[in-house]
Amino acid sequence: MKKNSTKKFTLIEMLAVIAIASVLIAVFTPAFNRMMFGSKVDQAASNFKLGLGMAQSKAVASRKYVAMIIPCFASEITDARLKQYALGGYRLAFVRKNGSSFEFIEWVSDSSWRNPDDGARLVRIDEPSVNSDGNYEWTELLKGKGNSGNLSDNDLLPAVDKANITKSTKLFKIEYDSTVKDPDMDALTQDNHTAIVFSPHYGIVNTIKPLSFYFTETKMDTQGNIEYLNRDNTLQFALNAVTGRAVFVDQQ
Fold it and tell me: Which helix (H) or strand (E) holds 52?
């Protein structure tokens, strides 16, 4: 009677298999990460672009000014629940014009906070300049700020940092009367947000130039600090200030 024989792997064979598997993991993990983070950058930019479209639609339909409120500095948001919405998260609010500024009225009823995908954030908002040929020149992403490593909040959003946020005629701090007693606006504080305001007559207020938005790979730690991961994986779209239409820009 024949006995079934089971071949056993030798220690050398097992070590060889482990070595091959380790090499394959080392080779394919970066490509997998690029694929995953690339899709997150796409998703974050697409969600933000969708929010801009929703803000314009709501402004036109309601015949009111609608602001897309964007939290800026996670480290200064007093409510831990809202820290995740810094740099790319947003919520829509009805606002009213008060001279050259805008005041918070209330949140749009069917609008909740939208969170940027983990792994991608809004890293810059720019207004382009016009060159001598009459063409727009888009400002280089994080120009003069370095190519890698950890960057501060001010480095990541130089166009809407605290020094410039009140000077900009395109982006606004929404004035907030504390008697309204809104907990989310309290948590953001008066200075720690910016907003893009849509007119009920189409487009955004106070400019006819397009705005440029950049999204790239980042990660946020538990304290709300941002680490800039990969400058090469950046997605840009432009918002037409007159029509309110946003289109992706080919950066190649």
Answer: helix 11-62
Domain count, the chain: 1
Model confidence pLDDT, tens digit, residues 141-157 = 443 333 344 444 444 45
CATH number at residue 63: 3.55.40.10
Q: Is residue 30 part of a domain?
A: no
DSSP letter for each residue of 190-247:
TTSEEEEEE-TTSSBTT--S-EEEEEEEEEE-TT--EEEEEEEEEEEEEE-TTT--EE
CB atoms closer than 10 angstroms to residue 168: 16
Contact yes or no for 251/233 (Cβ under 8 A): no
| Each residue's pLDDT tens digit, 173-215 | 888 877 778 899 988 877 788 889 999 988 888 777 788 888 8
Measured CA to CA, the distance from residue 5 to residue 122 in angstroms comes to: 62
What would you report as the CA-atom Rg of the chain, rounded to the nearest whole angstrom?
23
**Boundaries of domain holding 242:** 35-249
pTM (predicted TM-score): 0.74
